[in-house]
Amino acid sequence: MDSSNRKEYLLSQKNKGKAIFGVFPAQYPKELLWAMDIVPAEIWDPPLQISGANAHLQSYICSIVRLGMELVIQGKCDFVDGFLFPHTCDSIQNMASVINDYMGPNTPCYFFYHPKAPYSGPSFKYYLAQLRELAGSLQHHGHPLDESRLRQAIELSNTISQLLKTLYTNRSRGQFRSSNREFYDVIRLGEFLLPEDHIQLLENFINEKTTPETGSRSSVILSGVIANPLALLDKLDELEVTIANDDLINASRRLLAPPMDTSVDPFEAIAQKYFNMPPCSTKGSNISERAKYIMNMVEQSGAKGVIFNIVKSCEPELFDVPNLQSLLKEKGIPSLVLDTEVNQALSGQMVTRIEAFVEMLG
Ligand code: SF4
């Protein structure tokens, strides 16, 4: 299974009677969808040429939003039963309004407004209310929500969290043999696979690639939105540099939350998961909290530096990175800032900067 089989997989699930939802970045309660027989198919970086979306979006909108809208315009989502737009950032919100209010797809659109930091007592109640409202509105598509199925979905999600934690820990200790690209290929299959299928692949991957030896390759921490462009992962592999850990919005910042508490009400367990996630620019987290999170990764993995790979025009990241870079510099941790477009090649100048940075790390 790889991402090229994505549509085939989703259509096979549809044939089995499940509903398919196109879900835009980044955080949403996937356990709720699984429990209602809805398969979330996340839309981050479809491999498309952008043409039609440019007419609907301002020039300063990031390529993730541009590609998501292009997918809708080109009719490649015609088989989905609904769209879900989490309130991740202004650009996603902007796209959600354009698609829902002006483009009028025949597909129903749903919105999920999660609270931003700083969190206070009412934030938790607000999140719970959003969760229940979403569950109520999704009943039109999936099966009515059954508490035992939601608990089952939470157990499966916890198994995935445990497996991901093992993968990340082994990699950070140098006890994992995969290339950078292979690592993200496998974890990103969770963007559309049902949990049972992803669990099996993760288990196989861990068994195949874990090694007792400690690797001696140089390593860095990758921060940013997504492990894309692939050319960046390949370049690091070519330079024999391992990504020891990451601070990516579509990876550790949402995947490495501690397992959910199965002894409490399942809605509360899902809400707690959101508030226990690592700090993130799209949640308005405090900068020093984010810096601490990244510095811990550097310390625990022995990485020699941090690469901030910012998706061009990503406002939430652009607000945080200059301060993060200064805080890392105060601690003597070297960093490199790249601004890239997803699915694009690296420019010659960017390649030179990456090579110089890696050489400087020694
Ligand atoms: S890349 Fe940044 S601006 Fe674009 S959708 Fe993601 S968080 Fe929003």
| SSE ordering | HEHEHEHEHHHHEHEHHHEHEH
The Rg value, from CA coordinates, equals 20 Å
Choose one word for the global shape. globular
Range of helix content: 40-55%
Brief sketch in words of this structure:
With 362 residues, the protein is an alpha/beta fold. It has helices spanning 6-15, 30-35, 63-73, 90-103, 121-138, 147-172, 180-188, 195-209, 230-238, 252-255, 266-276, 287-301, 315-330, 348-361; strands spanning 19-23, 38-42, 82-86, 109-112, 218-224, 241-248, 305-311, 335-340.
Question: Secondary structure elements and their pairing?
Answer:
Elements: H1 6-15, E1 19-23, H2 30-35, E2 38-42, H3 63-73, E3 82-86, H4 90-103, E4 109-112, H5 121-138, H6 147-172, H7 180-188, H8 195-209, E5 218-224, H9 230-238, E6 241-248, H10 252-255, H11 266-276, H12 287-301, E7 305-311, H13 315-330, E8 335-340, H14 348-361
Parallel strand pairs: 1-2, 1-3, 3-4, 5-6, 5-7, 7-8
Helix pairs in contact: 5-11, 6-8, 12-13
Bound molecules: iron/sulfur cluster.
Explain how this protein is built.
- With 362 residues, the chain is an alpha/beta fold.
- It has a domain at 3-143: Rossmann fold (3-Layer(aba) Sandwich), CATH 3.40.50.11890.
- The protein has helices at 6-15, 30-35, 63-73, 90-103, 121-138, 147-172, 180-188, 195-209, 230-238, 252-255, 266-276, 287-301, 315-330, 348-361; strands at 19-23, 38-42, 82-86, 109-112, 218-224, 241-248, 305-311, 335-340.
- It has a 4-stranded parallel beta sheet with strand order 2-1-3-4, sandwiched between helices. A 4-stranded parallel beta sheet has the order 6-5-7-8, with helices on both faces.
- Strand 1, helix 2 and strand 2 form a beta-alpha-beta unit.
- Helix 5 crosses helix 11 (266-276).
- The longest helix is centred in the middle third of the chain and has 26 residues, at 147-172.
- The radius of gyration is 20 Å and the shape is globular.
- It starts with 5 loop residues before the first helix and ends with a helix.
- The mean pLDDT is 95.
- The site of iron/sulfur cluster has 15 residues, from helix 3, helix 4 and helix 13.
